[in-house]
Design a protein that fits this description.
With 185 residues, this protein is an alpha/beta fold. It has six helices and seven strands.
Length: 185
């Protein structure tokens, strides 16, 4: 999480708290999270809230529960609140959003194809590679992975990193060691 916060600072995203006023002085930032069951999103909200409070802003959270229809509902709900900006983690199957939010929106963790929104993203290929290499260096050779759902670009990228590490170390890629699932415990 510290990496995300530092990246936001380095890229100037903390200034978004001041610059996205949109004619209001409510000092509210909306956070639309993909799914609160995913522990990553809890840490993300915690980091956003910490930075927002340092700049005298409060955070309002909307959970999409990985349902693309709730993305539009969230934007409709947030359009009724005097927000200064919106931070969005798109659900896995989201491909479009309403364009009237263009000036208020920053993406986190997941990109939207062809969107050109500002965003802060992780290198999931490297993350999958690095995690797999750490297990290999610890002496493990039978390494499995859970990739997330089939529509998850994040999971797909982590699987790519996993496969690269396994191939570099000349370890067998076994189909039964690769499973899909949700990003929950």
């Amino acid at each position: 999480m510290e990496l995300v916060i530092n990246a936001c600072k380095e890229l100037g995203y903390t200034s978004i708290l001041r610059n996205m006023n949109c004619g209001t002085s409510a000092n509210l930032i909306g956070v639309i999270t993909a799914d609160l069951k995913n522990e990553f999103n809890i840490f993300l909200i915690e980091g956003i809230t910490k930075i927002a409070r340092q700049h005298n802003y409060e955070v309002v959270v909307y959970d999409q529960q990985e349902d693309p229809k709730r993305s539009f509902q969230a934007l409709d709900v947030f359009s009724k609140i005097p927000l200064n900006g919106i931070i969005l983690t798109p659900v896995m199957d989201t491909t479009t959003l309403k364009f009237e939010y263009l000036g208020m929106l920053v993406l986190v963790d997941r990109d939207l194809q062809y969107s050109h929104f500002d965003g802060v993203f992780l290198d999931n290929v490297y993350g999958g590679f690095d995690a797999t290499m750490a297990l290999i260096k610890a002496g493990h050779t039978k390494i499995a992975t859970i990739t997330g759902t089939h529509s998850s670009l994040t999971g797909h990228d982590r699987l790519t990193g996993y496969k690269k590490a396994m191939q570099i170390q000349k370890l067998n890629l076994r189909k039964e060691y690769i499973k899909s699932g949700e990003f929950t415990i």
